[in-house]
Amino acid sequence: MSDVLARPDLHPLRDDADWWRQAAVYQIYPRSFADSDGDGIGDLRGIRARVPYLQGLGIDAVWMSPFYPSALADGGYDVDDYRDVDPRLGTLADFDDLVAALHEAGIRVIIDIVPNHTSDRHEWFREALASPRGSAARARYVFRDGLGPDGSLPPADWTSAFGGPAWEAVGDGQWYLHYFATEQPDLNWDNREVRDDFLRTLRFWSDRGVDGFRIDVAHGLAKRLDDDLPDQATLDSLPRDGAHPLWDRDEVHEIYAEWRRVFDEYTPPRTGVAEAWVESHRRPRYASVDGLGQAFNFDLLEASFDAAEFRRIVDANLALAAASGSSTTWVLSNHDVVRHATRYGLPEPSAPGEKHGAAWLLSGGATPPLDRERGLRRARAATLLVLGLPGSAYLYQGEELGLPEVAEIPAAERQDPAYFRNPGVDIGRDGCRVPLPWTAEGDSFGFGPDGAHLPQPDWFGEYAADGQVDDPTSTLSMYRRALALRHDLQGAEELEWVPTPDPDVVHFRRPDGWEVVANFGTEPAPLPEGSVLVASGDLVGDRLPGETTAWLRR
Ligand code: GLC
């Protein structure tokens, strides 16, 4: 299969400093991508063997989620050592080989940096535990005395993002802050040693040829914790306007200004993309040219499949990107959310603020009923629209196969701390992290020679890559065609809306006669004039069916 997909003519490595502005970036969740050695955990050699597939897909870059040594308390976002590779995933030599192979294939490499917290196995944290209160070792983290005469009560009633308390006692009256899992102690970014060590890490990987960094929880590093800690209700009520004690503080950008200076030591400059869950008007700060350079726009993760909503989000984000001098980013799926092929096949959430798909997952995939066909039809339409937009598109492994979320993972096999810390409320994110099906048959559907670390359902083979390669109507073929076309078509970062009489239809024009028309309704709409380059579903004569997108050239 790999050979069939190899199209070396497709992508010479773009060597200009702006390569990232309109890149199609493919997110690899390494433990679930491809396993070379049969331990059930995906690894670097597994990815290496799939470079021809990635090249044939037509992406410009990969972003690899953490591959560092880790106890996997949070899928690798609990890092033991920022400058090494988890032995289960390979060695630094394997990493170098992989980067060389990707570059050779014209694919740039972005890696995940997790600066908000280390793991509790990191040498710094072990040293902190072995050191007394007030020590330099503890000052790298956020330690506070507990309340009550013997310090047996937490310093504040804060809850972690995964549920449960955010403070953990260490046995001597002190507690440490972990905004995520207990195994993820938050770092103290007021500490110069912490700052310097991350600069060293950025150089370490940049020297090894890494092209850019995705910054985890980028809005959380700067914290202002006075002696009197506010309670959770106060934290929740405070505006996130730059002065909130924990989130999106203005001075976080001093950290990224330093990082930018490191990025700019390289040619081409290294890039950054912030995972910053902030008010949208504050996003440009992260994306600024003096800062990380780009920030994720997650608006589509929370949007309905709705023409007006998509249009509003496109306009808002193009304006935000222009405000920062950056390009915008589009995301429909990632390792933290229900896959979009499933989201779009479920009714809208019934309660405000409820995550789309959460109730369905909690019911083990029983209710509300999932319309899988419709989900896929809409997912393909949404993807084709997004790939036609200016800016960069971040794709999540498996979406090119139309892969749905897996709901039927037994409790005993779940791994996500969000599940364990929130019983009955949050089922966690394992359902989008199930190892990929490469072949319709065979052990773990071709993921590896011997099993998969999360169970794959029986129906996974229906989505296997090998069954889609030669089928021109498959989702994989649509992605390949669109990505190849996009490579040639993507010109200036401009878009002009074309008025449509039907409110369910969006139509826009890109430079050089490239047009994109998407029908969010269920009834067919007239297809504008032009030759069809690619469509997300079958076209019927001069009609664009419901829940379908087409690219045209005038
Ligand atoms: C980010 C990651 C998520 C992780 C969390 C804590 O949101 O995307 O997977 O659990 O940070 O590191």
UniProtKB/TrEMBL annotation:
Taxonomic source organism: Agromyces kandeliae
Pfam entry (one): Alpha-amylase
Family per record: Belongs to the glycosyl hydrolase 13 family.
Gene Ontology biological-process annotations: oligosaccharide catabolic process
Stated name of the protein: Alpha-amylase
Lineage per the UniProt record: Bacteria, Bacillati, Actinomycetota, Actinomycetes, Micrococcales
Signal peptide limits: none
All copies of domain Glycosyl hydrolase family 13 catalytic, residue ranges: 27-433
Cross-referenced InterPro entries: GH, GH13_cat_dom, O16G_dom_2
Molecular function terms from GO: alpha-amylase activity
